[in-house]
Amino acid sequence: MAYDHNKHAGNEGDICKHPALIAALDKTLARSNRRAFKYADLFAGYAQNPLRSTGEWRQGIGVIAGKRLLNRNSHVAIWAKCAGLDVRPGVDANYPGYPGSAWFAQDVCNKRRRRVEFWLWETASAPHKNLRSAFPRAHVVKRSAFPKAHVVNTPADYLDSAIHNADFVFIDPPSKSHWRRISGLLRCLDPKQAVLVWLPLGANTRKTPPVEDGLSLRCRKEALEELGMGVSSIRWAKGGHTIGCQLLYRLNANARHALIAAVERIIHLAQLSRGKSPKWSYSPDHF
């Protein structure tokens, strides 16, 4: 599915997703003794997202930016610095753009000073072009901070050896309807591979107020009971088609606890920013 994440960039889902990714990847890197660490992102999106004036970022980075992001959690601080959210009281028209997942991952690998090979799949033309310009081939940019990157303009083939040989697999599909294929892939991956999946919490709008829909619930139940994954679910809205998100992960203990700590810090800051708006709720179902 060709999908342009641009209108969603920097929204509530991203401010949960990216600190969680940074925490999980950083602690996975710390425990890895592979000479060349391999990272796979099956739905990579933009390296840098230009923000739209009507974008959803207004409910995410638009209210949470500021120096307080640097306090108490090192992974939230890495996210804030990489995104340039620490030097401004709020995002405005001068903001250069919000990074995508691959850019955050690159920043973590650079901080760990690890040799790394990226595999990035993206089918939409504009994000793919942006990725290609942001991640030049390794032989073109010698002795640089850029990882060796393979930017692929076709859907990820779930039998691809690049996925099955990856040390860290990140999956952020355009729709939770991809879950059937994703769960099939997860069953085939080596249990030692680190995996993080981000999915939206969809709403059943036929109920008042809307409740989480059946597909979201089935994804979480299968991840917990059949795949043995940890799950953290976050809800920030009472209505609409998307009422929150869930993070499904298979990680070492240090990475799991770091992910949970980063998400809890973000939720605390987001709630402070929203005041009397509907409260965020958080449930670590299993870890």
- Helix fraction, binned, reads 25-40%
Give the termini separation. Answer: 31 Å
Number of helices: 9
Spans of at least 5 consecutive residues with low confidence? 138-144
Apparent shape: globular
- Please describe the biggest sheet, giving its number of strands, its sense, and whether it closes into a barrel: 9 strands, mixed
Order of helices and strands: HEEHHEHEHEHEHEEHEEHE
Q: Output the structural class.
A: alpha/beta
Strand percentage lies at 15-25%
DSSP strand tally: 11
Average pLDDT rating: 87
**Radius of gyration from the CA trace?**
18 Å
Structural features, described:
The chain has 287 residues and is of the alpha/beta class. The chain has helices at residues 12-31, 61-64, 74-83, 101-112, 125-134, 161-164, 179-188, 214-225, 253-274; strands at 37-41, 48-49, 98-99, 116-121, 148-152, 168-171, 194-204, 211-212, 230-235, 242-250, 281-286. Strands 1, 4, 5, 6, 7, 8, 9, 10 and 11 form a nine-stranded mixed sheet that branches. Strands 2-3 form a two-stranded antiparallel sheet. α7 links the parallel β6 (168-171) and β7. α1 (12-31) crosses α3 and α1 runs parallel beside α4. It is globular, with a radius of gyration of 18 Å.
